[in-house]
Amino acid sequence: MYSVTHSLRAFLLVASGVLWSISNAEAESCSGTNCKIGVLFKGTYLEDTCDVVINNGSSTETVVLPTLSTATLKSNGAEAGSVSFTILLKGCPVKKTVSLWFASNDADSATGNMVNATGSEYSNNVQLRLRNAAGSQMIINDRNSVQDYIIPDAGGDISHDYQAMYYANSAGGVTPGLVNAMASINLIYR
């Protein structure tokens, strides 16, 4: 609401300046008492957006995957260590479909996964893959790889489950080390 109000105020100040400029310019060309100057006012009203809650916590949570042996990820494309997490949408606008997708600055466009952080303490050749409850991969940075939340006429909280897992991205196997990746949750309202 602040940004909408702020934008509208800024526009009104600009519109006032334009009005002043137009009225001065028109005053010279207008000799009668029946001068009319049109003024256009614009603004934007935004609906409320959904609150995002991860694992019944907050909107900034950590999903912890299990500790595994590198032997579980020996072959390229192997997946292991799946852990479930829930994303709940609360207070959404009613009668909408809200499509959730994931984005990350550190994504592999070939696999659609998040890549691991780099450094001597981090594991090599491992990525993190996300799947929705139906088992379909949630391709990172793909606005078409979504999980839809259908908000009914009466409103209400809607949740979906997801899985995060390790993914081997090399035929040479995964090296021991830490795994750390981050993604943002993005919502499209339709």
**Which architecture of the domain at 52-63 and 70-189 per CATH?**
Sandwich
Tertiary shape: elongated
**CATH topology (fold) name of the domain at 52-63 and 70-189:** Immunoglobulin-like
Mean pLDDT over the residues: 84
Low-confidence segments, ≥5 residues, pLDDT <50? 1-27
The count of strands amounts to 9
Structural class: alpha+beta
> What is the CA-based Rg, rounded?
26 Å
The CATH homologous superfamily of the domain at 52-63 and 70-189 corresponds to Fimbrial-type adhesion domain
Strand content: 25-35%
Main pleated-sheet profile: 6 strands, antiparallel
* CATH class annotation of the domain at 52-63 and 70-189: Mainly Beta
Secondary structure elements and pairings:
Layout lengths: L1 H28 L21 E4 L24 E12 L5 E8 L3 E2 L4 E3 L10 E7 L14 E5 L6 E11 L15 E6 L1
Antiparallel strand pairs: 1-2, 2-8, 3-7, 3-9, 4-5, 5-6, 6-8
Description of the structure:
With 190 residues, the protein is of the alpha+beta class. The protein contains 1 helix and 9 strands, in the order αβββββββββ. The protein is elongated. The chain is 15% helix and 31% strand. The protein has a domain at 52-63 and 70-189: Immunoglobulin-like (Sandwich). It has one helix at 2-29, and strands at 51-54, 79-90, 96-103, 107-108, 113-115, 126-132, 147-151, 158-168, 184-189.
What is this entry, summarized?
This protein has 190 residues and is of the alpha+beta class.
